[in-house]
Description:
Radius of gyration of chain B: 16 Å
Distance between the termini of chain B: 15 Å
Number of strands of chain A: 16
Distance between the termini of chain A: 30 Å
Largest sheet of chain A: 5 strands, antiparallel
Strand order of the largest sheet of chain A: 3-2-1-15-16
Order of helices and strands of chain B: EHEHEEHEHH
Structural class of chain A: alpha+beta
Oligomer: heterodimer
Structural class of chain B: alpha/beta
Mean pLDDT of chain A: 87
Low-confidence stretches of chain B: none
Helix content of chain B: 25-40%
Strand content of chain B: 15-25%
Radius of gyration of chain A: 22 Å
Shape of chain B: globular
Shape of chain A: globular
Largest interface: A-B, 52 and 39 residues
Helix content of chain A: 40-55%
Number of helices of chain B: 5
Number of helices of chain A: 15
Amino acid sequence: xxRIIKIDPVTRVEGHGRVVIHLDEAGQVAGARFHxxxxxxxxxxxxxxxxxxxxTLTERICGICPVSHHLASAKAVDAICGVRPTPTARMLxxxxxxxxxxxxxxxxxxxxxxxxxxxxxxxxxxxRNVFGLIAQDPTVARRGxxxxxxxxxxxxxxxxxxxxxxxxxxxxxxxALKAADRDALLAGADEALGxxxxxxxxxxxxxxxxxxxxxxxxxxxSNYMGLVSPxxxxxxxxxxxxMIGPNGxxxxxxxxxxxxxxxxxxxxxxxxxxxxPFYRPQGYPEGSYRVxxxxxxxxxxxxxxxxxxxxxxxFRSICGGKPVEGSLYxxxxxxxxxxxxxxxxxxxLSHPDICGDDLIAESYRVLPxxxxxxxxxxxxxxxxxxxxxGGSIERVNLIVSTGQNNRxxxxxxxxxxxxxxxxxxEGIQExxxxxxxxxIRCYDPCLSxxxxxxxxxxxxxxxxxxxxxxxxxxxxx
Amino acid sequence: MPEPIxxxxxxxxxxxxxxxxxxxxxxxxxxxxxxxxxxxxQYHQLGPExxxxxxxxxxAVFLDAHVRxxxxxxxxxxxxxxxxxxxxxxxxxxxxxxxxxxxxNLRVPPAWLVSIRGRCFEFGDGLSERTAGGLAxxxxxxxxxxADARRNGRQEGSSHA
Lengths: 477, 161
């Protein structure tokens, strides 16, 4: 008798998700599906609006990374105007982007994933959360909060406010950085770096103690994609696309992001609202790829700041220079990116023109379309707008990072389930659920629900047989 | 100088009535402009750093939309620290934030939630007529909470004098 295990919804993951694990007649895992309710309606909502409104409109897509949407949209709008921002404006945008990277990654590591790692996957769920973490070591959560605040301080200094900054305009920025804000941010950098080093030491301590588990947990070969600078370095705001294969072979290099439609196509599955982007020349599903921190560190040649570069060299040694496959290494890559972002904040703030007032490159052109691509905290983010002669939006295409990691999350869940599901006569195992959730959390998915959650989200797990009859059910929360 | 009263609103202006708390927050920000005793904060989602702000205020008034059909259009209720089962996404609801403040040894202020019933959560900029109709009453309830806190603060101040 084949059976199905459902995990609905997944805790500590944005939006609404449901996991269904399919068992075959022998009780072995046949496959897994991570179901996502995605609201594609936002693209429709934008139609007939003027393109210049898009940076403000699109940052409402997501409560977690509004700055990323604001910036990707601003780049698409620049392209429609056929203009590049002034050097100071470009630096300010990147600065704000680094703030977003710090605050988003800090939340993911310190408050969502650290409990799994530091308290253990078999810790009882009532304690395996940020409160359990605080009970064990109050400094971890406190330092995590301060690190996140530092990222938000960067965003507020550039954008005028912590959420929904409205500073990017076609061709640049509408607000200069104040010298007092620059000095305050520089003064806070050492503490932020110290916290990140502290987190890296914690994580690597865990990795050392659980080496075999970390190496094999949700580990599988895949393609990887990310932006790199013209020198091949890690790049988040600008740059060109690089796609590599499972052994690190370069499938595409220095690819113009504006031509992304020749590179990427989207497949649909009848059981998922979320699309499955893939590398067009390889087809679907062979061309599936991963994005985000792990992918970015796998595709880049180097990092342009000293501490992060040293950490990249250690990261590279994990697989002898080959791409690192294990999903748990997303956490390590995330922390290395925080290190980079803080160092990059320092570099940008030290530039003599960072407080300059040459902020807008003017343009009166309206080109028929524009593409804006950035590396958001969770991965590559595409905004593509087509407009009419008057600048009204005719069509919008958004490809978000969670979609690009969709196939990988399914694979991660299936692999963990194969390893840990033991349902024959034992019902659903708590330890298996914890590990399935942890596999998904490696990707820190944001499902763009756009509406904040009202009420508490319970965790419901159901085991059903082939005819749909309930075999077992577990509810948490 | 006494610690401020914090008014903390969250929601999404791009999802119709989901933005009602932010509209209310703007009205209150205009009313308390220049008043150093009241700080109005707006969020898309509440994150753990709000716990730090809670530890540095004498009253917290949270503003939100609610979707309970059996509740009044405007509901005022106390909020108490509760970790619950700590089942959460990237969003940290007020009871969890108060519990987080307490767990990192910050002072936990008295806290209230003022919520207005939302009816439409589709993509859109405006509020539905009935939800917008609750704004004035909700604003009045917030003003009463602020006035009470100030009156109590003065009484405490004079009794200590």
